[in-house]
C-alpha cells in the first residue's frame, strides 16, 4: 500500500508541476473552446498577474508534493487552485469533473495522511 500511495502522490505532484510549467512555457496544445470559454480566458488574460500566479502555485505545490517531507505544504498550496478548478468545471465544463474529483480525493487523502502534523493546531 505504501508503494501505491507513493506512486499516486508522485503522479499527482508531477501533474500539477506540469500544469504550472505549461503556464510559463506553453508547450501543451490548447483544446478547442466555445465562445463562452474564450470570453472567460480573455477576461483572465486581462489580469496579467493571474495566470503566472496560478502557474507558480501549481509548479511550487507540485514540486513540494514530490518530496515526502514537504508533501503536506505542497498540498496546502495546491488546494485553493484545485477548488477553483472544480468550481470552473462545475460551471462551464462538467465533463472535467471526474478528473477534478479524483484530484480532490487524492488531496484529501494527503491531508488525512498528515493529520498528525496539524493535530496540535486544531485539537
Layout of secondary structure:
Blueprint: H1 2-25, H2 35-46, H3 50-66, H4 71-92, H5 97-113, H6 115-122
Describe the structure.
With about 120 residues, this protein is mainly alpha-helical. About 80% of the residues lie in helices and about 0% in strands. It has six helices and no strands. The longest helix has 24 residues, at about 1-25. It is elongated, with a radius of gyration of 16 Å. The mean pLDDT is about 95.
Features:
elongated; 123 residues; 81% helix; single chain; 6 helices; mainly alpha; 0% strand
Average residue pLDDT: 93
Poorly predicted spans: none
Distance between the termini: 28 Å
Query: Helix segment count?
Result: 6
The overall strand count is 0
Short description:
Helices cover about 80% and strands about 0% of the residues.
Amino acid at each position: 500500500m505504501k508503494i501505491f500511495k507513493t506512486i499516486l502522490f508522485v503522479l499527482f505532484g508531477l501533474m500539477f508541476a506540469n500544469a504550472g510549467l505549461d503556464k510559463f512555457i506553453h508547450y501543451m496544445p490548447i483544446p478547442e473552446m466555445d465562445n463562452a470559454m474564450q470570453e472567460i480566458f480573455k477576461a483572465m488574460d486581462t489580469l496579467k498577474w493571474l495566470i503566472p500566479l496560478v502557474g507558480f502555485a501549481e509548479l511550487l505545490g507540485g514540486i513540494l508534493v514530490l518530496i515526502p517531507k514537504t508533501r503536506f505544504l505542497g498540498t496546502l498550496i495546491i488546494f485553493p487552485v484545485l477548488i477553483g478548478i472544480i468550481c470552473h468545471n462545475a460551471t462551464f465544463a462538467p465533463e472535467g469533473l471526474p478528473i477534478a474529483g479524483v484530484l480532490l480525493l487524492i488531496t484529501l487523502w494527503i491531508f488525512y495522511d498528515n493529520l498528525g502534523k496539524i493535530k496540535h493546531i486544531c485539537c
